[in-house]
């Protein structure tokens, strides 16, 4: 079985097709000059939102830590020293902070390993 492939008419590279330039407008030039200039750069630098993102991420982690502590069915106990121990039912705020700090330590370690790996990979490439 043989398949015949037919080239579309726009495939040829003659001058007739090259000189024909289609412009497409969904609005048929109904926008005013002011509406067109809305998307042009204003010259203002965009605001750095890193602090906002980090604070909201910390808030989410703190909320997740609290919910994990609050809905835990078993009473968990942690001791920082021999004399300072706390559990998840009586000292819910302290235990929430303990879980939050553990989450932050784990994520910081993963991020640190990523940064070191990226720098090491760039060093090996060179």
What keyword list fits this structure?
126 residues; mainly alpha; two-stranded antiparallel ribbon
Brief sketch in words of this structure:
This protein is mainly alpha-helical and 126 residues long.
Overall description:
- With 126 residues, this protein is mainly α.
- The protein has 2 domains: 12-39, no CATH class; 53-125, no CATH class.
- Helices cover 51% and strands 5% of the residues.
- The chain contains 4 helices and 2 strands.
- A two-stranded antiparallel sheet has the order 1-2.
- Helix 3 crosses helix 4 (92-125).
- The longest helix has 34 residues, at 92-125.
- The protein is elongated and about 75 Å long.
- The mean pLDDT is 82.
């Amino acid at each position: 079985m043989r398949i015949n492939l037919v080239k579309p008419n726009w495939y040829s590279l003659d001058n007739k097709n090259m000189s024909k330039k289609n412009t497409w407008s969904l609005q048929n030039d109904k926008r005013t000059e002011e509406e067109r200039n809305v998307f042009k750069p204003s010259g203002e630098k965009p605001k750095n939102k890193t602090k906002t993102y980090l604070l909201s991420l910390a808030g989410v982690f703190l909320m997740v830590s609290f919910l994990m502590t609050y809905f835990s069915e078993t009473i968990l106990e942690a001791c920082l020293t021999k004399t300072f121990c706390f559990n998840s039912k009586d000292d819910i705020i302290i235990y929430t902070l303990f879980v939050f700090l553990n989450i932050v330590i784990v994520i910081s370690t993963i991020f640190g390993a990523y940064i070191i790996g990226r720098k090491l990979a760039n060093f090996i490439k060179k």
